[in-house]
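Peptidoglycan N-acetylmuramoylhydrolase
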Amino acid sequence: MKVLNSPARLAGLLMAVGAAAPALAGPDDTLVAARDAFRANETSRLASLGDSLPANYPLKDYPAYWLAWKALERNDDAQVQRFLNDVPEGLMPERIRNEWVKKLGLRENWTAFAAEWKKLPVEARDEESSCYGQLMGLHQGQKPEDLDRFLEGKPAPDGCNRLIEGAYARGLLSQEWLWRRARLLLAGNFLSQARQLAADTQLPLDNAALNKPANANLATDGGQEAALFEIERKAKTDLDGAAASLSRMEKDLDPARSGFGWGQLALLAARKQQAGQALQWFDKADPRQLTADQWEWWARSALRLEQWTQLDAIIRRMPAVVSAKPAWRYWQARSLQQQGKPAEAAPLFSQASVGHSYYALLSLEELGNSLSASASKTTPTSQDLDKMKSDPAIRRSLALLSVAEIYTKPEFRTDAQREWRWAMRGRNDMELLAAAEIARKEGFYDMAIYSAERTKEEHDFSLRYLTPYRDVTQKYARQLDIDDAWVYGLIRQESRFITMARSGVGASGLMQLMPATAKWAAKKIGLTHFAVNDIETNVQLGTWYLRYVLDNLSGNQVMATAAYNAGPGRARNWQADRTLDGTIYAETIPFSETRDYVQKVMANAAYYSSTFGHANISLRNRMGAIPPR
């Protein structure tokens, strides 16, 4: 017989069978019931449950917050305003106000928008509300800033589309700018968004030709765009054939369109790691139309072939916002070293060494520094701890965390994370470290790391690089003879030590195991019954699989890390036909997620190795060399 283990569950059952529900036992039960009422759109019950919460309950305002979300859906401005008057400060009113200003902007109620906009902190504004803020300014005669940010080939939210339309209507954007945006949307296969842009701005995009590119009239702008769209679509399955088509058609296209086309083909070639072909096509591209992503892949193509002089030249041509990234500071410095110019390389390594990221650590090593000694630890005082414990947002966050764990409700944990992040805004180093220590003691490990990582001058690396569950992790790492620092580096990146972590694709637990992988690994080691979220089982299966991919990938940690994220087949495919520096292999991984993952895991491993007092292995040496295919 199944036991009903909470009053809220019992109340739900009694209501289902028509019996009178008893009074709920405590405020947490009431809150969970209120969340259920919110999801069921039972606003009267939600309001009643909210009214029954005690005044001193730290989460008392949440039912009213959920009611405000429902009011936003109904465009009930009066109820939204009442909530904002009753709860003037905190995460909840900021999120409601951010959504409300978008509603007001959509309705062009600029008077109300202006009143609420000035109350919304910059940190609380998302992309769309910021666009509405610029649109309000446009109506007041102000010129919007940085509209070129929309030339990156991705859809924009409705408020930003309205900003683009308004800016064009006032002569602040040219038709050529609109063509560039439409071209980028088509290249990304965002066909409906490109058509909407054309409809909003009377851009003569040929919709019929987009449907049947063979009928495109190359004497018209719309026909040329349709023909270019067909070449880009063909390139996804037949890159060489698309290049041949573009070569034949080039004489009939204006230079801007043909230059754009070569840039798109070059990007696809670079992502397929056809570096030599990519470099040829990038040379034919129009550099004025290259996105940040294309500039970076141009540089990666030269890097993949270790064409150091060409890499240096590409980085020098990059837009400043791209070349200023630590990655490209580092690689330009490496290219200068290879060209025998160490004096020119040193300042670039110094610029890239700020912080504690992968490239910062690599740059520090090039400057002669290492992690052989543990970072100094700064401890907050008891007064610092008491101050942070009494902060209302932190109290709400920890109360939400408790509800999430007691009731196994991940959505409350998400709210707890949001409250915690809000509470960290504008904090000094001691406050951040105090908050990190509080989170650590509460088992809120991801937020402990979040707070500790935000310090500027005073650091505690034992909080940045936490080691919970070390007895379990170390046991299986030793059994399988794998580096426990590497295992910790991977867990930190995978789950931030959240045992109930579940990814959007279904990966679970500390080591984020996919169901099929967990089942396969369990069969291999003889586990007939297992729970993938059990801490010990998850680590046992995860470390076994990590050992498996390591053994099958030449014992190379970098490749095994890539395989853990993207699969062993892809990790092998990314090898070159010659030995490759591990840092080059990592930087030229085609998947952005996997590239970032590998770099962060390996940097984490270096920090954990130093914390554990292991033999001093630099990150550069840890990255090693990738054998040829």
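thats it. The CA atoms of residues 71 and 80 lie 6 Å apart. Strands lie at 580-581, 625-626. bye
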